[in-house]
Specification:
Blueprint lengths: L1 H20 L2 E4 L3 H30 L1 H14 L1 H11 L3 E4 L6
Antiparallel strand pairs: 1-2
Amino acid sequence: MVEWVAAISMFWAIAALYLGGFQIRFEGADGPRQLLGLLICFALYLVVFGVLRMALAGPLGPVVSVIAAVLIACALMPVLSRVAFRLVGVRIARALAAHH
């Protein structure tokens, strides 16, 4: 069960950095759809983590497989979030840099 706590904790940190800190914008989004997109992204992340953890447990061992699964799932955050938000009708696009 500890491995799930590690994965869940990493999701919220990485999601905050990616969705809140990167130069992206949400097109066609209102509050409820953004929340639903985030929850779907969380579910997709947990599925990816679970599958990777099980697949890597044999060759890498239990501890290394959890670390590798968390790192790979976190690296997939841009893809997972785009898929999740697209499912609720929100498009994630790059924000244009402001020129002064």
